[in-house]
Amino acid sequence: MDFGLSDEQRMLEETLARHLSAAAPLDRLRQAADPATPDDDLVAGLAELGITALLVPEDMGGLGLSILDAALAAIALGRAAAPVPFVGPFVLAPLAIALSGSNAQRAALLPAIAAGKLKIGAALSEAVVARADAGVTAEDHRLTGRALFILDVEAQKYLVADRSGGLWLVDADAPGLERTRFTTIDVTRRTGELRFARTPAEPLPGASPEVLRRVIDAGRVMLAADTFGAASHMLEAAVDYAKTREQFGRPIGTFQAVRHMCAEMAAALEPCRAFLWYAAHAQDALPDEAALQAAHVKAHLSEVGTRVAKTATEVHGGMGFTDLLGLHFWFKRIAWNRQMLGSPEILRREAARLRGLAA
After folding, report:
1. In this structure, is residue 281 part of a structural domain?
2. Is the pTM of this model over 0.85?
3. How would you classify residue 146: left for phi > 0, otherwise alpha for psi between -120 and 50, otherwise beta?
4. Domain end (from 114, 145, 175)
5. pLDDT tens digits, residue range 156-209?
6. Rounded distance, CA 157 to CA 118, Å?
7. Which of 125, 128, 164, 187 lies closest to 343 in space, CA to CA?
8. DSSP conformational letter for 55
9. Which residues fall within 8 angstroms of residue 164, CB to CB, at 6 or more apart?
10. 319 lies in a domain?
11. Residue 254 CB: number of other CB atoms within 10 A?
């Protein structure tokens, strides 16, 4: 039995790595007047590679690939600190529409998502407090409340969850919708807040708490994958720096303390690769384990990623805190991922409930 990636998946990894290396997203970040503004050229290039179509079914113009394939893309984007939307518009939105949308919704939205022409932000965090008001006709459905920390707020539509597990689509220019954009510590991605005042909304008819659970679990795996990619970059940067930075006439990597720091980072991070692959695989192939594995992998990688980010910065000494090296882009990206869709503390409580160990 083969427990590794397929040849096609390895080709996806290599193609993305080459493309992002040539695109130099870090240079783009430094030159941008507003680093959180999505890079349209970079998004277009990724669309040509099929990244926007990964989870769109083949009969809707997509590639019909797995959550594991999407996780490999998330690793590459995290490793490059790419300032592009991905988790909300090209993972959560197509998955939710494919699972719970009507035939008309699927036909209207999924091909546009696959082509990279439609971005749907995701308002699915634990802070969503929207209430749905069902009317007599479809046009009378309304949302009231607010949603915090939108995944990819620069969008034409939003996927919104209500308190009962329903899913709704809201146009960005819908009456009664107030959108506030803001930048967190992670300048590579912009989030925001949505406020609904009886805002017209289109329901996804097949939505249920089970569908919402599956969508959020996929998002957790993507954020864990992004953290793994970002932490991998920081580890590699620390090792390279330790080989070239000299102190007292020799590379600092020859000092026992620095060697131990690098070895401990590698020892903590490497097992996460197989853990991440398994959790991503479970989302499609092992439904009974999917929620538990998603909670565990994000909680674990959030903590390992934070530790690697801190230690890698320390290996660089004072240079690690400067803009010259840009380590802060990855450091802060890892910190942002840690809190989105559940901190380690929240996720471990959920895992305990799933195991019947907590009320």
Report:
1. yes
2. yes
3. beta
4. 114
5. 999 999 888 889 999 999 999 999 988 788 888 889 999 999 899 999 999 999
6. 8
7. 125
8. T
9. 132, 209
10. yes
11. 13
